[in-house]
Structures are given as C-alpha cells and as structure tokens.
Specification:
- Belongs to the GcvH family.
- Its cofactor is (R)-lipoate.
- By secondary structure, the protein is of the alpha+beta class.
- It has four helices and nine strands.
- It has one domain: RNA polymerase II/Efflux pump adaptor protein, barrel-sandwich hybrid domain (OB fold (Dihydrolipoamide Acetyltransferase, E2P)), CATH 2.40.50.
- A six-stranded antiparallel sheet has the order 1-2-3-9-8-5. A three-stranded antiparallel sheet has the order 4-6-7.
- Strand 1 and strand 2 form a beta hairpin.
C-alpha cells in the first residue's frame, strides 16, 4: 500500500493534506484497495460545517458501501465533482483524488492524526 509523506492519516483511513488554512481530504490507498472498484461517490454540500467524526461522504464499491468521516473540524469550501462523474478516479489515484477542500477550524486537531510512519505501523497491525 502506498503511504505518502507529508500527509496526516486517520484510523478510518482518510488522509489530510494541509495548505495554509485549507485542507484537502480523501481516502487512502489502503481504503480504496479494501473497497475494490468504486462505482459511486456522495459528497457534502459546499458550506457544510462538520465536526471531527462526522460523515463527510459515502463511497460505494461493487463489494460494499462505506462512510467517509472528516478527521478534523471543517467548513467545506469545494467538492471534487469529478469523483461523482467518475468514481474510479479514487482507485486510480487515491492521493490525487481529494473529496473536499475545506477550511480547517482548529489546527491542533492535526496532532491527533498519524503521520506517514505511524500510519504504516497502524496498517501492519490491521
């Protein structure tokens, strides 16, 4: 499984990329691999305010449907409609296929997430 440096990871297999006060959120390579061929993606409304642990969206594959959770408190600024039109983009490039761009409400929440090395160890124990 591919794990990229410079991102934050949740135990629910979401990744967070920080750029200034904005964050990009998507699902990890492990998550997309576990799901299999993704056929449907549901994203939140722009302007939605979500707390850490809230459902950010839904990803469905031929095997299962899975909720995607926001790992941090956010306000959704933009959604990636390309994923709605072509959900397989997540399978092809999980780290390039962000689900939302959002305003990060509390940077200290990033401290509760895993860095790449910690996430790799977490995956070994899964």
């Amino acid at each position: 499984m591919k794990v990229l440096e410079g991102l934050y990871y949740s135990k629910d297999h979401e990744w967070v990329k920080v750029e200034g006060d904005k964050v990009y959120i998507g699902i990890t390579d492990y998550a997309q691999h576990s799901l299999g061929n993704i056929v449907y993606v549901e994203l939140p409304e722009v302007g939605s305010e979500l707390s850490a642990g809230d459902v950010l969206g839904v990803v469905e594959s031929v095997k299962a449907a899975s909720d995607v959770y926001t790992p941090v408190d956010i306000k959704v600024l933009e959604v990636n409609n390309s994923l709605v039109e072509d959900p397989s983009l997540i399978n092809n490039d999980p780290y390039g296929s962000w689900m939302v761009i959002a305003e990060l409400k509390d940077k200290s929440q990033l401290d509760k997430l895993m860095k790449a090395d910690e996430y790799r160890k977490f995956l070994e124990e899964e």
